[in-house]
Amino acid sequence: MEVNTEIVEDTQMDVEEQQKEEEDPFLNFVDQARSELLSLEDDSNRGDSDTSGYGWSWIVSRILKTCIAYSSGVTPAILLSELSQAWSEQRRVAVPKKRLELINSLKKNNRRIKLPNTVTIDSIYEKKFIALNSVLEVVIIDAHVLPGTNIHMLTLGDYWSSNIIDLYLHRRFYDLAGLPSGILKKGREVLLTGCYLRTATESSGHPRLLPTEYLVILLDENQDDDAMLLGAQFCSDSFSSISLDAVNKGVSYSLYARIENIESAEVRGNFGTSQRKQITLVDGDGVTLKFFLWGEQILLANLFRVGSMLALDKPYIASSVECDIQTSEEVCLEYGSATQLYLVPYIQHEEQVCVALTPNRHQGSRQMGSCNPTQGPRFSQVSLPCDSQGTVDFSNYPLRSIVVDLRDKMTGISLYGVVTEISKEDNNQATVFSLRIADTSGEIRAKLHFTRLWSLGRVSLGHTIFISGLKCTASKRKKCLELAWFENGTGASFINLSCLPALINSSCLHKLFKLSDISNQTCYAQVCRVWLVPNEYYYVNTRFSHSLCGHFVDKKPGGFVECSFCHRISDAEVVRTFHLKITLADKSTKALAWCTGQTAMDLLQISPEEFYDLPEEEQLMYPSSLENETFMVALVNCKPERCVTYDLLPDDSISWEITRAYKCE
């Protein structure tokens, strides 16, 4: 069946549309930064098959993270330095240092793709720190007992580091390290998370990892010893054979199943809110059971990947009623004090995708498809991960993805564009917002899924956003493409560039316009140096807004308040804010614009509470103190061409919103 995408068709971008893209200062800097970094790249590394250059999304994400960290402004030197340093860490993975002989021999057979939170041993030495949710994918170099004690130590290495590190083994794994027959021995691969670092001291000249309960042993079905272990220990029990009566009599089970799905949830109990991971397992008979991780145990989920085979020795088995879980299964599994976990990792396939090295602005990923090696040097191949369902991961795609190039079964997508519609969906079960994003090639709808509440600050019509971690699927019901974004999803980020303080504080990220030159056709915030003309037109009022989303609220009959964006909310989430409309001017012309929130405070140089407490006469006289004050402002067209609704705008007559401002000294 032919699927129609929800796209405004524009098969050949005209000159005017092309110029809009080329004039965007931020996109221009991204291209410049990528060129600079590639020019610094060591020629000896360029042929490495493990790398495909700098992903467009990765560069944008690093630039924006730096902008958030340096809100007072950045320079090209700062941005390029941060990018270069971050990329050096990435290259450590792709271009490893001298490896130990044992690891070199195992590396040849390693076809796994790194888990999202994986860190290297070298990076631990450099930073003298490891985050609790970091993942270590390591090989046991040596296993021994400290002399005169019963303390087991594992010496670990990884595929990307020249350093090794010692781990104090947690006592729950001592039975597996019984030398020399234990499974935790030289050459065994394991995954770790939840680690704490003991830094070097006078008595110990190198750092060590403290014991962690969150260790998973990797098995290889192609190795005779591992195949025998799986056959002897995990093939006699199945989900259907589990009996609660037998469990109550002390019977334990060893189970083997495929990881079907991993979900996050927050559970509210008598003593507050706790985190939970729900892992759906399917055994060889097709029977499904839920494996739950609670509290700090959720770190274990960092070690799992959908499609991998999980072997559970002595899992804690509970009734669904006992766990207060709403599920169709009678029992569920948990990570108990005696539970041991083994994993046969899912090996992702690679799909070859053709990428144009000199694409035009409208090309994006359009060249996907069959690769013709005779086309000459204009094309280069990159390998992108493809799962068992045929979904291709574009998170490391070297070019910018645009709307017209989106296809079914794409994940890890990043988009840069303008918000033309945003609203909350009527769904009592989840917090879902519908957002329509447009670039110069078209527009598409994305559904934003939140764990609890909206958490992205104020987003409105005409704002320029960068959103990553999107998944594209074909909707059979609507016969169009739809994007899905999950707040806690892999690689998920959402940054509103229009409201970014560093945007107007950094000359390398914006172009300075005269008011007479600003265009309502642009897809980015336009920065101008202006002064205020309150005697021309001026309106200010204090209103209440929703603290989470920044949009205005109205009082309804019955005493409750309703947010124009999130709908009904509680009084505790309401704050006083400004609604300001004012005339801006420079030497070329004048323009009427509006603003709210922090931007209005920056222009008025007073808080809403202080202004509200002023006598009425002083409020009326206040504008005179602002006359001829000079500001740098970022302006967006809050009525873009493809905008569907203006419900979020307080005044239909004004086309310009001031999203950021600062006073010129």
From TrEMBL:
Transmembrane segments: none annotated. It comes from Medicago truncatula. Residues 26-150, 155-284, 405-626 form the Cell division control protein 24 OB domain. Residues 1-25 are annotated as: Disordered. This is Nucleic acid-binding-like protein. It comes from the Eukaryota. Residues 7-25 have a biased composition (Acidic residues).
